[in-house]
Amino acid sequence: MSDYIGRNKAVGVGIESTRGTAVAAQYWVRHLGLGFKRKGETVQNESALNRREKFSDSETVKQWAEGALDGKVNSKSFGVILLGAFGTVDSSVNGAGYDHVFSVDQSNTSQSLTLSRVDGTVSRRHALAMIKSLEVSIETGDYVKFTCDIVSKQGESSAETVAYVEEYEFTSKDAYVKFGDVDDIAGAQANTASAIKSGKITIDLGVEPTHELGDTEPAEIHGGAIEVTGEVVARHTDTTYEDMHHANTKKSVVFGFVNTAVDLGAGLNPGIEFEMPKAAVTDFDTSDDLDSIIEQTMGLTGELSLTSGYSIRATLTNDVATYVAA
Hints:
This protein is mainly β. The protein contains three helices and 20 strands. It has one domain.
């Protein structure tokens, strides 16, 4: 063991074939931040012992691991993150590459992952890793980034071989946000991209660990109610979005990014597209700086469309054939 800096940490993700049984990492993530760590709860023994001291002992009663993983969205490894968030994937051939359509699993025990963590002192696999929330964001002049909160079992020591694969990233020049009529994703995709300064999509999966008698670790980690929200910032050049907010007008929204500098073959480019067939502008505000261009901020909420059959889904296009347990 030796001293180390944050850049010496490595984090990998793997798809579990048996829920709660740790597996090796299938991809090592080029992370920007790793707040994921072991946690625990203790109870103090307050029994009186004919003295003034309040505590005479303590016991550990709960143990788990939890925290944030931050990084840039990459064309291959991000597929495992998407699977952990959505729960199901349907993969198909698309010319020289593949399309992976991620949809929300309605089970409360959807796909689990194993998160592997390596640093200067430990190497550990955390089974039953469930994504609590996932946010994908883009700002002008920056990379497309993500942050996800993860909760899992406390982890067991392991021997890892850290190895990164060649991947492609995305920047603001690759990104777009498009609007269309409600339940018309194809129409939104065909529309011209809106003039947007920044945007983000957040999926809160309502994940909570369940502890039971007889053990300190979670017996299960369940998914709960899912909330889909977004935010878009643009110049305030007209009242279109403000009118949508006050009239509660529903729109389809497509939030995506395609790296056109990379050709997977036959003109196919890596990319990711999030689709919300029915979204409402549930919050609206404008800036008021006297010396700056006035901007508008729109808060979006993805609603379940009974016509389209979902509130959100994502399509990842790359050169990976499948996202299944190794």
